[in-house]
Amino acid sequence: MVEEATKPAEIEVFFDGGCPLCLREIDFLKRRDRHGRIKFTDIDAPDFSTESCGKTYDELMAKIYGRLPDGTWITGVEVFRRLYSAVGFATVVAVTRLPVISQVMNLGYRLFAKNRLRLTGRCAGQTCSVKR
């Protein structure tokens, strides 16, 4: 029997497993990723080390990052486009590339990323922080 070569993931996503909303999205993608096209890396996991990726923890917490097989980094909405394309939603992703929709999505994501800790209940008063 000839063993099939393991194909690398199409994208590695770096996500905050301590963020309830983020985790819900990642769990959905994990269920849909039946062909192993996504590598999921939880930056909140106790054994995660930034040394393996060349980004700081603060950079990774500021917005979502994805890394392509050739080492190229992508951020923001483009990460979600790649993730959803990988699990079979390419038609929906194509709509998100239309000019006005793309601009709205980019703005929406920037606002979410800036306020993510507050929106997901990880702030006390005026202070937002995460355990590290």
Account of the 3D structure:
By secondary structure, the protein is of the alpha+beta class. It has one domain (11-120). It contains 5 helices and 6 strands. Helix 1 links the parallel strand 1 and strand 2 (38-42). The protein is globular and about 40 Å long. The termini are far apart.
Structural class: alpha+beta
What is the number of strand segments?
Answer: 6
The best one-word shape is globular
In helices, the fraction of residues equals 40-55%
The largest pleated sheet is described as: 4 strands, mixed
As a whole number of angstroms, the C-alpha radius of gyration is 16 Å
The total count of helices amounts to 5
Strand content: 15-25%
N-end to C-end Cα span? 46 Å
Kindly give the count of domains.
1
Low-confidence stretches: none
Side-by-side strand order of the widest sheet? 2-1-3-4
Mean pLDDT: 89
Order of helices and strands: EHEHEEHHHEE
